[in-house]
Automatic annotation (TrEMBL):
GO BP annotations, alphabetical order: CTP metabolic process; UDP catabolic process
Annotated catalytic residues: 153
Keyword Hydrolase set for record: yes
GO cellular component: Golgi apparatus; membrane
GO terms assigned for molecular function: GDP phosphatase activity; ribonucleoside triphosphate phosphatase activity; UDP phosphatase activity
Keyword Transcription regulation: no
Keywords, in A-Z order: Hydrolase
Annotated organism of origin: Balaenoptera physalus
Name of the protein: Ectonucleoside triphosphate diphosphohydrolase 7
Protein family per UniProt: Belongs to the GDA1/CD39 NTPase family.
Length: 157
């Protein structure tokens, strides 16, 4: 029980030993960004990371949702990064600036994007990969923005 109570406390963003990660879930009706954190790993390959969802000063989960889904950018893929800007700005305000360069960002697109042609999917992803690093210093590369299968989607929280 006491361990669970600790999970509900505000995240200590002053702790230099914490690492952060961002996951954008681009669903069919909207997109959400989740901010996670974990303490530095002890180096033992048998120990898993203790990853938790970040909580703000009011002990609320750090998550933000926007509508509609990113698939709405199908005919204007050059605006996909503009579409995600509010989510990344929100995350940037919660993750300590000194940690931005080492904070991985994953953009996982699901059902709405799977319905688009591959050409339209690739155009949206290309805009994200090209433009987001110009504005945000998160650790982000082409392999971290993808359309995931329904099977993969089933295991993502």
């Amino acid at each position: 029980y006491l361990a669970r109570v600790g999970d509900l406390e505000a995240t200590d963003t002053e702790d230099p030993n914490l690492n952060y990660g961002l996951v954008v879930d681009c669903g069919s009706s909207g997109s959400r960004i989740f901010v996670y954190f974990w303490p530095r790993h002890n180096g033992n390959p048998h120990d898993l990371l203790d990853i938790k969802q970040m909580r703000d000063r009011n002990s609320q989960p750090v998550v933000k949702k926007i509508k509609p889904g990113i698939s709405a950018m199908a005919d204007t893929p050059e605006h996909a990064s503009d579409y995600l800007r509010p989510l990344l700005s929100f995350a940037a305000a919660h993750v300590p600036v000194r940690k931005h360069k080492e904070t991985p960002l994953y953009i996982l697109c699901t059902a709405g994007m799977r319905l688009l042609s591959e050409r339209k999917q690739l155009a949206i992803l290309a805009d994200l990969v090209k433009d987001l690093p110009l504005e945000f210093d998160f650790l982000f590369s082409q392999s971290q923005a993808e359309v995931i299968s329904g099977k993969q989607e089933g295991i993502v929280p």
